[in-house]
Amino acid sequence: ILQGKVELDNVGLSIRADYQLKNLRLIAAVRQDKLNVQESPIYGYQFALTYQIKQKHLVRLNYGKANRSAF
After folding, report:
1. Rg of the chain's alpha carbons, rounded to an integer?
2. pLDDT confidence of 19, banded at 50, 70, 90?
């Protein structure tokens, strides 16, 4: 690969769902990436929960996993 041409192709697919009930909101998302240099697909996800205490106060919890590629 020294002084050679390397080509990286990526195809991604993602979906997101959002649900709200009064002051509570739930968001969930999933992503799949397929690279030409890797056989198995890579997955990532995210979940978020928000609660509106008052008009100017919001609490948010977030959990997720993202790809840490060497590229």
Report:
1. 18
2. very high
